[in-house]
Design goal:
- The protein is of the alpha+beta class.
- The protein contains twelve helices and 14 strands.
- It has two domains: 182 residues, Glutaredoxin (3-Layer(aba) Sandwich); 148 residues, no CATH class.
Length: 372
């Protein structure tokens, strides 16, 4: 076995190991958004599309496909959420953009548009298309799997992906609503003529700084007070309180409680998530679970609804009725029709998704013997 082969083997082994870690649910909650000049990942799309959508994208009839299979020289990817006010205002503008692309022989068939509905299911995505008469495909991303790959960003977010048979590169990235469809059409038409090697040269040198963890405006002292309050509401008196640092530097708090059996353990985790839409506040809350992984309490830190209005008692009661009693190792499947707090659908789906991801936290605590 020659040295070159060994080097390649070790390289791909460590690359694979890194990807396993980097794409795990706990790790993927905060990732930097892709920037101009970076390679765009060959994302797998598993949603079944209509025959007309497949035809538009230049795909054969298949249950799933990868991004590099889309027949285009430039892909305009739009990250949206159907409840995001800015995304709703964007829809008519992008209908004009779609028309401009399709009505010009120099861009028709060469530039394709695709929407990713972050935090929405397929029914919501299709209803949005129908409501705004959108012709290009919109794919649902209820559990943010695609957004985790694209990177932490708010909607609307637009990426122009320059594509060749061999590779895909981010050629343009824009956060927020695009007002001038004609100007944007002119920009992307020009980008379509750029060589990929030239776009790669625009990539910023050095390693970009990673995103800092989301933090609330309240003090650490007050946050710990809220954590203890959440524990006491379930287990009465705390007889021992400690901080557990996890492998990915996240913190879980453990309290030994006096209620029922002496020394009963409860665990609390402060969850923080980037807001989905560009005019919404980031959310912060505390969830409490027992040694069996059952969610037993929810404490709001910053939870808001439309207009960035704080949740009231009834809002919290509604959410508790949907999540308390569920186990972290089971799926937290979100259905906006029954699970969403009124006028807080985006916040509600983020709570469900955070609990879905918490399975990795529960498993690590079990492996380290804290649940015995």
């Amino acid at each position: 076995m020659n040295q070159s082969f060994l080097k390649k083997t070790f390289f791909y082994f460590f690359l694979y190991a890194f990807l396993l870690i980097a794409t795990s649910p706990a790790f993927a909650q905060r990732t930097r958004a892709l920037m101009v000049g970076e390679e765009f990942p060959n994302i797998l799309i598993e949603e079944k599309l209509s025959s007309s959508d497949l035809k538009y994208l230049g795909l054969s009839k298949k249950a799933k496909f990868r991004f590099n299979e889309i027949k285009a020289e430039l892909i305009l990817l739009e990250v949206l959420n159907v409840y995001c006010p800015s995304c709703q205002k964007q829809a008519p503008i992008f209908n004009h953009l779609y028309g401009a692309i399709e009505n010009n022989p120099s861009t028709k068939g060469k530039i394709k548009m695709l929407g990713i509905a972050a935090g929405n299911n397929q029914i919501e995505a299709q209803s949005f298309r129908k409501r705004f008469n959108i012709s290009y495909p919109i794919i649902s991303d209820l559990k943010f799997k695609i957004l985790d790959v694209v990177g932490s960003t708010r909607a609307p977010f637009h990426i122009a992906i320059r594509k060749s048979p061999e590779e895909m590169v981010v050629a343009r990235a824009h956060l927020g609503r695009i007002e001038d469809y004609a100007g944007y059409y002119k920009d992307v038409s020009t980008i379509m003529t750029y060589k990929i090697a030239m776009i790669k040269q625009t990539k910023k040198k050095g390693t970009p700084e990673p995103l800092k963890p989301l933090k609330t405006d309240i003090s650490e002292e007050k946050l710990i007070m809220l954590v203890k309050q959440g524990l006491k509401e379930v287990g009465n008196e705390i007889i021992e309180f400690k901080e557990i640092k996890l492998k990915n530097n996240e913190i879980v708090y453990m309290g030994k409680m006096s209620k029922k059996n002496e020394g009963e353990k409860l665990f609390a985790k402060v969850a923080s998530r980037e807001a989905i839409c560009d005019i919404c506040e980031n959310i912060h809350f505390i969830f409490v679970f027992d040694s069996k992984g059952k969610v037993v309490n929810l404490v709001p830190v910053v939870l808001t609804k439309y207009g960035n209005i704080k949740w009231n008692v009834e809002d919290l009661k509604k959410m508790k009725s949907r999540i308390l009693g569920k186990y972290l190792y089971n799926p937290f499947d979100f259905d906006s029709r029954v699970d969403a707090v009124s006028q807080a659908t985006m916040t509600s789906v983020l709570i469900f998704d955070s609990l879905e991801r918490a399975d990795t936290i529960y498993q690590e605590l079990r492996e380290r013997g804290y649940l015995n």
